[in-house]
Amino acid sequence: MRPNIRPATAADLDAVVALDQACFASAVGGAALTATPSFTGPWSAGAWAEEFARVGNDRVVLVANEGEVVGYVVLLVPAALEDPVDLLRIAVAPAERRTGIGRQLMSAALQRCTGRTILLEVAESNESAKALYRGFGFTEISRRRGYYAGGEDAVIMRWQEDHD
Ligand SMILES: CC(C)(COP(=O)(O)OP(=O)(O)OC[C@H]1O[C@@H](n2cnc3c(N)ncnc32)[C@H](O)[C@@H]1OP(=O)(O)O)[C@@H](O)C(=O)NCCC(=O)NCCS
After folding, report:
1. With a 6 A CB cut-off, is 127 part of the ligand 1 pocket?
2. How confident is the model at residue 33, as a pLDDT?
3. Contact 59/65 with Cβ under 8 angstroms?
């Protein structure tokens, strides 16, 4: 079944919290969020509730739904168009990976970023995420040495819509 990609609603909160636990409990790194305390592990239910509360303000949360929530992406979208969008988090349920859901979530996210620049941070060792991002034209622009717990570098990647 091809998932339906749609904006998250309050009814999705518990499922997203649970999926985030499943995806990040043992993860190192991730597309980190400067304004959120936990860069590397799952976000708390409270942190997720804050993200959901900011939807319609400066957050976009999309979910992939296949009868249940199997993926999500979170963007920080500043009101000022010249400010970059931050891709804060993207994940797909472990059992559903490599079936194109991450790509669908990224496509839906990028469609909402016409004319914008997008930045993200990803752990150096996160080859699957880096490959996904590169496939959409993200390029490495810098690094934060030893940024993550354990000393791993954060790779900072940027996407800009092609204006040609
Ligand atoms: C990164 C992640 C979201 C990718 O989701 P996904 O649904 O498996 O990705 P897709 O099936 O859409 O794959 C799209 C492309 O990404 C790349 N990719 C995805 N998984 C990969 C892997 N394990 N190894 C290499 N490349 C991979 C490939 O280029 C792939 O295209 P292809 O299948 O045609 O080769 C998923 O692996 C995940 O949830 N990881 C844990 C959470 C995380 O680290 N998130 C990123 C930081 S916030």
Report:
1. yes
2. 39
3. no
Of all protein residues, the one whose alpha carbon is nearest to atom 10 of ligand 1 is 100
Pick the atom of ligand 1 nearest to 27's CA.
Answer: 44
| Per-domain residue ranges of the chain | 4-160
What is the residue-averaged pLDDT of the chain?
Answer: 90
Q: Is the pTM of this model over 0.85?
A: yes
How many angstroms separate the alpha carbon of residue 130 from the centre of ligand 1?
8
Contacts of 14 (CB under 8 A, 6+ apart): none
Q: CA quadruple 106, 66, 93, 35: dihedral positive or negative?
A: positive
Q: Residue range 48-53: average pLDDT?
A: 97
Ligand 1 atom with the shortest distance to the CA of 93: 39
Q: Which residues contact 27 (CB under 8 A, 6 or more apart)?
A: 40, 41
Superfamily of domain 4-160: Gcn5-related N-acetyltransferase (GNAT) (3.40.630.30)
pLDDT of 31 higher than 70 = no
- Is the pLDDT higher at 129 or at 31? 129
Closest residue (by CA) to atom 42 of ligand 1? 91
Q: For ligand 1, what atom is nearest to the CA of residue 29?
A: 47
Rounded mean pLDDT of 9-20?
97
